[in-house]
């Protein structure tokens, strides 16, 4: 039955596991298929054309596994490929990410919002449109974060090297008077504990994982596709080294799981 079919979720790497956590918490009866495109990470420095090609291949694979919906758990993939996938699959529920400009603009007290994101996200037309739509009365300061995704991919969330890298990206935003920081990449929520050590307690940290899970629930509910009492299964795939993903799962997912290799 369609409501027992799995939900397909993918990211350039392991960052989308932060979104998968939110989906699992909100929709505990759903079966999930997660594909980490670790063989091609990071997306943030690649061209939109390259990313669209990857997203098409991944979407085709997830649909071949019976996915009833797709979640692009990657801000950079959303910017490059969400419109393309929606045009290819007009009847398919597709939920995508976007930096939380609107809630950040509503939350700021100083009127200055900082954005930590990949270069690809910050350069995208989608991000520019978000700024035009929601940030008219707010000053938005952006900070590309090369190298941060690779640290998280390795499960390195608190080493001196990661701390130094993150500190170097956060300090300019704080110096500009930001009191609200948008975590504009699905990898970055895994650094919340470290960020809390680096920024004052009154700085708000905002990401959109929970909002994505709520939108997914609404879309599935509107189409009578929500699972009820189905077996709770999570199937994991990677285009990179299987052992590498298996090694970081206890840190990022909280459990050991078998991982399958995606050769596409």
Question: Which class of secondary structure composition applies to the elements?
Answer: alpha/beta
Task: Return Rg in Å.
Answer: 18 Å
CATH class division of the largest domain = Alpha Beta
Strand sequence of the main sheet, in spatial order? 4-3-1-2-9-10
CATH topology of the largest domain: Rossmann fold
Named at the architecture level, the CATH assignment of the largest domain is 3-Layer(aba) Sandwich
Counting structural domains, the number is 2
The largest sheet, given as strand count, sense and whether it forms a barrel, is: 6 strands, parallel
Secondary structure: elements and pairs:
Elements: E1 7-11, H1 17-26, E2 32-36, H2 48-64, E3 69-72, H3 75-88, E4 94-96, H4 101-107, E5 112-117, H5 119-123, H6 125-134, E6 139-144, H7 148-153, H8 160-175, E7 180-183, H9 192-198, E8 204-206, H10 209-222, E9 234-238, H11 242-252, E10 259-261
Parallel strand pairs: 1-2, 1-3, 2-9, 3-4, 5-6, 5-7, 7-8, 9-10
Helix pairs in contact: 1-10, 2-3
Question: What does this entry look like structurally?
Answer:
The chain is α/β, with parallel strands linked by helices. It folds into two domains: 2-97 and 209-261, 3-Layer(aba) Sandwich (Rossmann fold); 101-206, Rossmann fold (3-Layer(aba) Sandwich), CATH 3.40.50. The chain has helices at 17-26, 48-64, 75-88, 101-107, 119-123, 125-134, 148-153, 160-175, 192-198, 209-222, 242-252, and strands at residues 7-11, 32-36, 69-72, 94-96, 112-117, 139-144, 180-183, 204-206, 234-238, 259-261. The strands form two sheets. A six-stranded parallel β-sheet has the order 4-3-1-2-9-10, with helices on both faces. A four-stranded parallel β-sheet has the order 6-5-7-8, with helices on both faces. Helix 3 (75-88) links the parallel strand 3 (69-72) and strand 4 (94-96).
